[in-house]
Structure formats: C-alpha cells, structure tokens
Amino acid sequence: MKFISTRGQAPELSFEDAMLSGLARDGGLYVPSEWPQMSHDDIAALAGLSYEDAAFRIMKPFVGDTYSDDEFRGIIKRAYAGFRHPARVPLVQIGPNDFLLELHHGPTLAFKDVAMQLIGQMFETTLKKRGERVTIVGATSGDTGSAAIEAFQGLESVDVIILYPHGRVSEVQRRQMSTPTASNVHALAMDGDFDDCQARLKDMFNDFDFRDRVKLAGVNSINWARVMAQVVYFFTSAVSLGGPHRKISFTVPTGNFGDIFAAYVAKRMGLPIDRLVIATNQNDILHRTLQGGAHEKQGVTPSISPSMDIQVSSNFERLMFDLYDREGSAVQQLMDALQDNGTFELSQGALAKLTAEFDSGRCSEDETSATIKDMLESTGELLCPHSAVAVNVARAQRGDSAVPMVALATAHAAKFPDAVEDATGIRPDLPPHMADLFDRDERITRVPNDLEALKAVILERSRI
Ligand SMILES: *Cc1c(COP(=O)(O)O)cnc(C)c1O
After folding, report:
1. Residue spans of the chain under pLDDT 50
2. Among 10, 69, 154, 173, which is disulfide-ready with 169 (CB 3.0 to 4.6 Å)?
3. What are residue 107's phi and psi, to 5 degrees?
4. Catalytic hit among 2, 60, 112, 128
5. What is the pLDDT of residue 117?
C-alpha cells in the first residue's frame, strides 16, 4: 500500500517512510491511497480474539510487508504488554444500551498510549534495521507528550522533544513529561496555547534545512501510524457488542480529530457503524462547522477538558481530502484560506457529505461537571472530564435508538483530579505504579513562542 499527501504535491511514500516523516513535504498529511476492505466474514472472525491478534489482522493491510508477520506480532505484543487490563481496552456498561470504551489502561492513563506504545516499537524496529536515528519533536495539549515520552524513553535511535503550552496542562500531565530521567527525552514549556505549539511544530517541518539536519520525525496525530493504531478498537468494541451482525454508534470526545477520524476509517474499511458523533467542549469549531459549513477559528478558551482545547484540528484535513473527492488542490486552497483569514467555507457538496457521515454536539463546562457527578451517583464510574463530554453528548444524541451507543473514555479520572474533585468532592487516586509521581524531581526548559529560539534548543538537545 502506498501513502499519498492530502495536498497532492508530495511524493507517494511507503508505510515506513510515511511513518518516519510525519508531515508531507507539501504541508499535507499522509493517507493510504485506498481504504483496505474487511469483509463481513473477516470482521465476524475477529470475535473472541485477543486485542493483539485482532490488531494484527486490522493493521496488516496498512503495513503490508514492512515487517515480517512474526516481527509485527512481536511489535504489537510489546506495545500492549504495559496495559493494566487483560482486555487492553475494556467495555463498561453504563445504561441499558450505553457503553463506555475505556482507553486509559496504558502507562500514562490516556488513550494516546494505545497508538504511541505501538509506534515506539515500530520506530525502534525500523530505525535499527536501517541503522538510522531521528529527532522526534511533538506538540501536546498534555496527553500526547506524556505518552510519547513514556513510549520512547531510553530508546537508542530517537531523541524526543515535546512542546507543551506553559501553564495549560494539568499537574499530572506535566509531571509525567518532566519526571522521566532518560537522557533522550525533553519537555519544553512554551509560551502560548496548544495551537501555537502545533504551529511552531509545522514551521519546523516546513523548514527543510532544519528538518533534514536533525532528521525531524513527528508523532502527533498527523502521523498516519497513530490513526491506524486507533482504528483497531472501533472494530474490537463493535464486535464485542454484536458487530458486524448489527450496527454500533460511537461518540468520540474530539480535539485534533485523530480519534474520530480513526472511527471514520473503520467505517470506510467496512465496519457497520450507525452514527459517528463528534463531541466537543466549549472550543467547538467542529460542531460549528457541522452546523453551518464555516470552519472558523475563534480563540481557544481554557477548559476543564484541556486535551480538547484546540481550534485547529489537524486531522480534519484528512477528512476534507475525502469530502473533496481526494482533490489535493481543493484541500490546499481551503488550508491556505484558513492560514490567511482564519476561516474557510465548505462547499454545499462537502458539507452534505460531512453531515451524512457525522453528527456533533457541544458540552459546556457546567454540563461536563454535572455529568461527572451524575455518572458517579448513577453508575459508580468516576469519569475524567473528556470522557464526561463524550457521555453527555452521547446521551443527548442517542434518542430512543435501539442501536448500542459507545462513548469513548479517553483518560483516567486521576489524570485530571482537580476537575473531578470539584465535580464530586472525591479526589481520585493515582494508580499504584505512579503513586510517587508528586515526589519525583522535575526537569523542564522554558522556551518562547519563537521558531529560531526553539530550533536552537532542539539542535542542542538532539544527539544527531
Ligand atoms: C487527545 C485527547 C482527546 C482528543 O483526541 P483527538 O484525537 O485529538 O481528537 C480527548 N481526550 C483525551 C483525554 C485526550 O488526551
């Protein structure tokens, strides 16, 4: 399988090269040249498999013969060995036909581990084989950075440098990034918000001299391999609930549009999905886009679900590519307009396709807190604020449909203890393996929102 850029001007790449390069050189994102198909029988045959065995079958068409079957099975096995639940991503019932998909049993307590642990293993295998090294630079609203640092710490062939918005991540998130002691991982606290971090990261990728000099690689959800890893749990959870013999609906708490895009990919691959619901917090650019077709940036307002405090959802570009019949030039024009004017308008045809595939809902801060409280009282489940946004929107959207609705629980409550305590009066405990997080020493570098200053710090830290 080949990978092509959403802007149509960059060379086609193999799976491995697309994974290592992150952003395409024309500024676009890599997507598979076609969607591989899983037949009804292929999907039915996933029933009863371990998460690892299902993951192998679902991801194999994307990786092709990049790795031998044994090698790929080993990669998957190592990736999920650190998850503290035998199901890896268990389903929990919260209503007659309502479910939570718990994605937070990995080492850093957020769903980012599902993809990051896998790509850590894939990077290491590929780079060792090629005798190469890379410098990974990532931007994070909190969870991607901690998952990347955890997944790559101590690996021989990579240095990892993470940019996070100073003062805008939770203390647990910050400490997960600043306390690992391996010399190849670095947390940089940047002035600005997440969109600023992501913009500087894109600037670095578009600075080809710098990019080549430090062998820049990306692990944000602009990296196709991350989306691929997330496709798996839509299949496994649907099969647990009776798919492909019945349709299932999903509500996904959305920021950068990576997770919900993975659900869309599962649908394109043949999984019978009834409704895909985008759940946003008060930073609701995607909800507004679905309502009217205008994709208009407004300032980011910090919320109690900070991992969704985003106005530029990078992966939305991957969807736009499909909405515009895979015309790279159309995507390029819209993204130029967004860059220049902070807004673009979807065509009637594109908007019609968008609303045919997705529904959306917005959850306010008060509704988020009320949902955390109500879920604790009615089910005994303690939710993180992001998961609460999903549950709130899922409830509002499900109506009296007989189709099972799965809301994604994307982080553990203990990752956002202040918001959970404010809502319930209960301060969630960290799990035993990180009980001493608040006693560990921190290592942080403050950096300005300035490309040249950032490049200098990265050159100094990278071992290339
Ligand atoms: C990253 C994140 C999200 C948003 O996921 P996207 O793929 O960026 O849409 C939601 N919840 C949590 C806890 C996250 O870490």
Report:
1. none
2. 173
3. -60, -30
4. 112
5. 97
Q: Whose CA is nearest to atom 1 of ligand 1?
A: 307
Q: 218: helix, coil or strand? A: coil
Instruction: Compute, in angstroms, the gap from residue 308 CA to the centroid of ligand 1.
Output: 6
Question: 230 in ligand 1 pocket by Cβ < 6 Å?
Answer: no
Neighbours of 351 (CB within 10 A): 18
Dihedral pair phi/psi, residue 309, rounded to 5°: -85, 75
Cβ atoms of 332 and 324 closer than 8 Å: no
Task: Output the pLDDT for position 300.
Answer: 87
**How do residues 261-299 score in pLDDT, each as one tens digit?**
999 999 999 999 999 999 999 999 999 999 988 899 888
Tell me which residue range forms the domain holding 388.
91-109+224-424
The CATH code of the domain that includes 102 is 3.40.50.1100
Q: Is residue 415 part of a domain?
A: yes
Q: Is 286 within 8 Å of 313 (Cβ atoms)?
A: yes
> 387 C-alpha vs ligand 1 centroid, how far in Å?
10
- Biggest CA pair distance of the chain: 58
- Proportion of the chain in helix, strand, coil states, percent, rounded to 5: 50, 15, 35
* Contact between 360 and 316 (Cβ < 8 Å): no
C-alpha separations of 132 from 18, 158, 462 in Å: 15, 9, 14
Q: Give me the pLDDT at residue 375, please.
A: 98
Asked if residue 190 is part of any domain, the answer here is no
Question: What integer pLDDT is reported at residue 62 of this predicted model?
Answer: 98
Residues 120-176: pLDDT tens digits? 999 999 999 999 999 999 999 888 999 999 999 999 899 999 999 999 988 999 999
**Domains contained in the chain, number:** 1
Annotated catalytic, 247? Answer: no
In a domain, 172, yes or no: no
